[in-house]
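Problem: given the chain below (84 residues), write out its structure.
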Amino acid sequence: MFTDGRIDWVDLALDLLVYPDGKTLLLDEDEFEALGLDTKEQRQAKKAATEIENIFNNSGGKPLTSLFLELSSANTVQSSLVKG
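Solution.
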C-alpha cells in the first residue's frame, strides 16, 4: 500500500517481487505449499498472484508508484491471497 510517501505491505504466503525495471518474481512458493490449503484455496491464491503479476507485466513501463496508486484507488485487483 502506498500512503504518505511510504510503501507498506503485509507479508503474504505468496509474495511478488517487482524490480525497478518492471521484471517480476513470485516468492515463497515453498512456504505457500507448506500451508496445506485445499485445492480451491490454492487455485484462488495462485490466480490472484497471477493477476497481480500480469498488471505489472502489462504496465507499459509506468512507474511503480503510479501503478500502486491506480491499484489502491480503483481497487482493480481484489485478491484472496492467504496471509502467511
